[in-house]
Amino acid sequence: MSAKKTIVLAEVKNGELRNVSFEAIAAAKQLSNGGELVGVVAGESVQSLAGELFAYGVDRVIAVEDAQLKHYTTDAYKQAYLQVFDKEKPEVVVLGHTSIGKDVSPRLAVKLDAALISDVIALEGDEAPIMIRPIYSGKAFEKKQPAAEDGALIVTIRPNNIVAGEKDESATGEVEVMSVDITDLRAVVKEVVQKATGGVDLSEANVIVAGGRGVKSADGFKPLQELADVLGAAVGASRGACDAEYCDYSLQIGQTGKVVTPDLYFAIGLSGAIQHLAGMSNSKVIVAINKDPEAPIFEIADYGIVGDLFDIVPLLTEELKAVLV
Ligand code: FAD
Q1: CA 147 to CA 165: how far, in whole Å?
Q2: By C-alpha distance, which of 86, 99, 105, 107 is closest to 9?
Q3: Does 255 sit in the ligand 1 pocket, CB within 6 Å?
Q4: Ligand 1 mean position to 296 CA, how many Å?
Q5: What is the pLDDT of residue 214?
Q6: What pLDDT was estimated at residue 278?
C-alpha cells in the first residue's frame, strides 16, 4: 500500500483533548503507511492543544478557530471539516467512535464519497492493515480491508481499545490556524449545562462499578458508589436499574446505552442479559457479584463471587480501602 495522507479529527471536551484522539493518532499512523499525518482540532481557542497532538505523533496541526465551533453542532462541524478536507485532500480520515464521531462521520463520508468503516477496535498488519469491528452486539467480529479503488476512507475507532503511542513531550511542528465559513446553521447551542454527577466520566473510565436491579433501590447504589470512590472508578448501571428508577439513564451500559471497555468492570446485582453484555463484554477483567450462581454474567466473568451484594460490597470496599487509601 502506498503512503496515504491521513487526517485525525481530534475531539475536545471541557477544553481538553479526549484520549480517543491519541488512540486515533495511533490508528492513523498504521493506516497512513508512512504518509503525512495531519491533526485537526476545531473549536474556540483550541490552538494551544496542538502540542499534545504533536506529542502523540502528528506531523502538522490545523487549528480551526471559530466562535460557532465552541460547542459541537452537526452543521457547523460538518462544514468546518469539509472545508479542511477540500484544502488538504486527505486519503484517510480517522476519528473517535464517540457521540460526535458517530454523528458526523456518515455525513462526511457521503459528502466525500468515501468508504466508512465504523467502530473499529483493532488493526492488524502494517501494510494495508485489516480493521476489526464487532457486529451483532459484539457476538461476532468482522474484518475489513478496503480495496485501493475504494477511494477515500473514513475510520471511526472505539474508545479504549487501540493503544495510544508513547508521548514525546519534545515533539513540535507547524500549527496552521484556519478560518472557515460557517453559514445557515439549523441549530445553535447557547449553553451546555453539565449534570452534577461529579464523578468519573463513564465512557473514559478505567474502572467501572455497575449495578443492576439487584441493588433494589436508589439507596442501594450507595455501597457501589463507596466502592467506586475507593477505586477512583465510575458508576454505571444496567437498564434494569435505570428502568426501576434507581439511577439516571445516563449511567446505562449496553446495546441501547454506553459501550465501555475499562480495564476492570464490576457487575453487581445484574444478571448479564445479552443487551447488557453488548456494552461491556470487551472489558479487560470482569468481576461479577450475584446471589444466583446460575446468573449468565458468571459465564463471561473472570472472577465471580456468589452472595448477597449488600454483604460483599462493603467488605470489599473495606479491604480495598486498607490497601489503597
Ligand atoms: P435482572 O435481570 O432482574 O437481574 C438482577 C440480578 O440481580 C439477578 O441476577 C439477581 O440474581 C441479582 N440479585 C438480586 N438481589 C441480589 C443481591 N442482594 N445480591 C446479589 N445479587 C442480587 N439492558 C441493559 O443493561 N443495557 C441495555 O442497553 C439494554 N438494552 C436493551 C435493548 C432492548 C431492545 C431490549 C429488549 C432490552 C434491553 N436491555 C438492556 C434489557 C435487558 O434485556 C435486561 O432486561 C436488563 O439488562 C436486566 O437488568 P438487570 O440485570 O439489572 O436485572
Answers
A1: 27
A2: 105
A3: yes
A4: 10
A5: 98
A6: 92
Q: How far does the centroid of ligand 1 lie from the alpha carbon of residue 273, in Å?
A: 6
Q: Where are the alpha helices (DSSP H) in 97-255?
A: 99-112, 222-231, 239-243
For residue 285, what is its C-alpha cell?
477483567
Query: What would the grid cell of residue 263 be?
Result: 480495564
Q: Whose CA is nearest to atom 46 of ligand 1?
A: 240
pLDDT at position 200: 73
E strand or H helix that includes residue 166 = none
ipTM: 0.99
C-alpha cell at 313: 460490597
Q: Which three cell numbers stand for residue 234?
A: 465510575
Gap between the Cα atoms of 78 and 95, Å rounded: 13
Cell 481538553, residue? 16
Locate cell 476545531: which residue?
42
pLDDT tens-digit readout, 39-65: 999 999 999 999 999 999 999 999 999
**In a 10 Å sphere around its CB, with 0-12 CB exposed, 13-18 middle and 19+ buried, how is residue 158 labelled?**
buried
- Tell me what pLDDT residue 128 has: 82
Under-50 pLDDT residues of the chain: none
